[in-house]
Amino acid sequence: MIISGIGRGRLAVAAAAVAVVAAAGCSSSKSGPATSTTGGTGGPTGATASSATPSADAATVAAIKNAYAKFFAPDTPEQVSLGLLQNGAAFKATIEKQGQGGYAQKSSAKVSAVSLTSADVAKVVYTIYVGNQPMLADQPGFAVRENGTWQVAEHTFCQLLTLENSAPAECQTPAGMNPPK
């Protein structure tokens, strides 16, 4: 692995590989139109609304979009990438392995919608691109805020790895198997 430059690409490889698997005939779940950037309750697991769900302000939305974009960008250094993934250090070997694929240098991600479910958890809708081609569109995912930093949720990364049949043992934790609350 190249120390800098391809760290994030490794995660992009996972996403791109998932995208290729999805494009090759595996079905991917699509949610309805996702244009909201504020509010929102519940989640893909059928969680019920709490008394008051915070709204995502512009700075929060930008921070979450930035976390996803950098996490999946091929030129993000590995240490930065690990810091943008919930429990990232546990996935170091997985990220290195994913970065060895050809899609790593061409992949990116873009968040199209953000809605907070709590002050430190957001539902997102994102698309994985290979080059300019959307390969895994409108995917539901999560972002979590830990120590003041928004990160890609471990659960979301594990979902991508599961789609490509390469989920490591680290995904068998509660954070890997269950959406954040």
From TrEMBL:
Coiled coil location: none
Species of the source: Jatrophihabitans cynanchi
Name assigned to this protein: Low molecular weight antigen MTB12-like C-terminal domain-containing protein
Keywords for the protein's UniProt record, in alphabetical order: Signal
Residue ranges, annotated region (Disordered): 27-52
Source organism superkingdom: Bacteria
Family matches, as InterPro entries: Mtb12-like_C
Classification via Pfam families: Mtb12_C
Domain Low molecular weight antigen MTB12-like C-terminal span(s) in chain numbering: 58-166
Signal peptide positions on this chain: 1-24
Family: Belongs to the MTB12 family.
Biased amino acid composition, Low complexity: 27-38
